[in-house]
Amino acid sequence: MAERMRRVAVLVLEGAKPLDVGIPAQVFTTRASMPYEVRVCGAAPGLVSGGDGLSYHVASGLETLDWADLVFLPGYRHPDRDDPSEAVIDALRAAHAGGARLAAISTGAFALAATGLLDGKRATTHWHYTAALAARHPLVEVDENVLFVDEGDVLTSAGAASGIDLCLHILRRELGVAAANHAARRLVAAPYRSGGQAQYVPQIAREPLGARFAEVREWALGRLEEPLTLERLARRAAVSPRTFSRRFVEDTGYTPLQWVMRARVDLARELLERSELGVEQIAAAVGLGTGANLRLHFRRVLGTTPGEYRRSFRA
């Protein structure tokens, strides 16, 4: 029997931001390579006034949340003024009680916090609103220095772009790294950024190295089987190792060598998922040399062994 499609609802509230609405709708788009069905809904069927000059016509109301396995709350304008209606709050609580996970993008965290489901848990939102979220919901442990927070059944992310990181994180957890990397390539997005990476906030203008560093990361991903030292990576970026290391952490949340190790482990995961190669062959292909070295780093990063990962993924 074919596996049931995973059900994703995107709840559009008044003042919804278009990019926040579009990210989960596009990442979890219904297509052959993605076992998801996506429905966009509102507090009631009909026209919903959005932010940035756009409005949305939704075909269904809150009953969609009862149907969903995963509910996204996109950010919306003026979240610090009024909570969503009691009907919305009750529907979110009921969906959660029924087993659905709730994921907020940007200021959608305010709607999620209004349900009380974030009380006593870590959460984040756009850096501009972190103080307001903490003041309005003092029982929530607001972390302003991360891109997203996964508390299992409730998830939150910072500004709109970090919503992509959150969605890819969910895909990685549900379908494996190969599917997440496939979606990242389709979106022309970074395959992974650390959830613990600091949010970008306004600061003094500096040399725009972002594109150059992105090219180095792409270059490194194609050479993971080769020795990739800090000096070699910095030379590729045409900056000093010290500058490269400092700016790389700001860009990704990892040191360069931590990032390379993560990339190697992720490539190993993809090969375990999609090939019949043995552990020794995979270790050589991803630049970790021996099976023992791969097992060591695999356990450090994922808390399991390559063999256990392959068996659980295929199960």
Account of the protein in words:
With about 325 residues, the chain is α/β, with parallel strands linked by helices. It has two domains: about 5-180, Class I glutamine amidotransferase (GATase) domain (Rossmann fold), CATH 3.40.50.880; about 205-315, Orthogonal Bundle (Arc Repressor Mutant, subunit A). The protein is about 45% helix and about 15% strand. The chain is built from 14 helices and ten strands. Helix 6 packs antiparallel against helix 7 (about 175-185) and helix 11 crosses helix 13 (about 290-300). The longest helix has 19 residues, at about 255-275. The protein is globular.
How are the secondary structure elements laid out?
Blueprint: E1 6-12, H1 18-27, E2 36-42, E3 46-49, E4 55-58, H2 63-67, E5 70-73, H3 86-97, E6 101-105, H4 108-114, E7 122-123, H5 130-136, E8 141-142, E9 148-150, E10 154-157, H6 160-175, H7 177-187, H8 210-221, H9 230-237, H10 241-252, H11 256-274, H12 279-285, H13 291-302, H14 306-314
Parallel strand pairs: 1-2, 1-5, 5-6, 6-10, 7-8
Antiparallel strand pairs: 3-4, 9-10
Helix pairs in contact: 1-6, 6-7, 9-10, 11-13, 11-14, 12-13
